[in-house]
Amino acid sequence: MPASSPAPPHADGPAPLPAGAAVARAVGATKVYGAGDTAVRALDDVTVAFPTSRFTAIMGPSGSGKSTLMHCVAGLDTLTAGEAYVGDVALGTLSDRQLTLLRRTQIGFVFQAFNLVPTLTVRENITLALDLAGREPDRDWLDALIATVGLGDRLHHRPAELSGGQQQRVAVARALASRPRIVFADEPTGNLDSHAGGEILGFMRRAVDELGQTVVMVTHDPLATGWTDSAIFLADGRVVDELDAPTPDTVLDRIKQLGEG
Ligand SMILES: Nc1ncnc2c1ncn2[C@@H]1O[C@H](COP(=O)(O)OP(=O)(O)OP(=O)(O)O)[C@@H](O)[C@H]1O
């Protein structure tokens, strides 16, 4: 696949952002679930930015607010206070319909469960969202994706005929098919063995390096963080640390320090 400059969003989308600009960000993000004695402050004044064409990990102990942060920045959940932005659009100003449209056109999702449609082929799964939106896939982009996924000979298979790792590669290709501005991955390797997990992480790394994608991944796994450009650490709903060019060793050290702190 040819190397390319940072991927402009799909032709229907907004103008490309300058290099280093934040594709998505949260400013003073606070999320409280419930009320009164049982209220849970899942996010407590979080300010973070996810720069374009970077692979960022969100780490932290169970219950620290990782998924909540991702869901609020991706427009799947709303904040109690503060604001989340995709590009320069403040999500809190959008109607439900506008939010759905923004998610559909600008954001890709990968979840721990692969969520493929069992009756469709690999190729149909990859282009499903585009087909539903009546949009023509960008052929060169799709070819590059399919080559990167390495499933060119499986395009007419159904998900049940693939291994878990292969199914997740299809799910990642599906998330990238519409050339979203940003891809959010929630524990994408959680259901995979370390070999298949490494393949998925390598694939997302290539999507960032070669296709200019922006990827944000929630993970518990220090090994997975080694594939990313930076790691943000949450604890009790707050950002407590950030690490550039993380390695499994530096991440483990940091987790240990945070645990002792
Ligand atoms: N819908 C909800 N209603 C009430 N409380 C919630 C809801 N979703 C999350 N929480 C609470 O908010 C806090 C943060 O949860 P969140 O799922 O964001 O953490 P996490 O870091 O992603 O955890 P894990 O690693 O276990 O997935 C937790 O205390 C959780 O119990």
UniProtKB/TrEMBL annotation:
Coiled coil: none
Pfam family, one: ABC_tran
GO cellular component: membrane protein complex; plasma membrane
Keywords: ATP-binding, Nucleotide-binding, Transport
ABC transporter domain: residues covered: 24-261
SMART domains for the chain: AAA (SM00382)
GO molecular function: ATP binding; ATP hydrolysis activity; transmembrane transporter activity
Keyword set includes Repeat: no
InterPro entries: AAA+_ATPase, ABC_transporter-like_ATP-bd, ABC_transporter-like_CS, ABC_transpr_LolD-like, MacB-like_ATP-bd, P-loop_NTPase
Matching PANTHER family: ABC TRANSPORTER RELATED, IMPORT ATP-BINDING PROTEIN
Protein name as catalogued: ABC transporter related protein
Organism, as annotated: Conexibacter woesei (strain DSM 14684 / CCUG 47730 / CIP 108061 / JCM 11494 / NBRC 100937 / ID131577)
Lineage of producing organism: Bacteria, Bacillati, Actinomycetota, Thermoleophilia, Solirubrobacterales
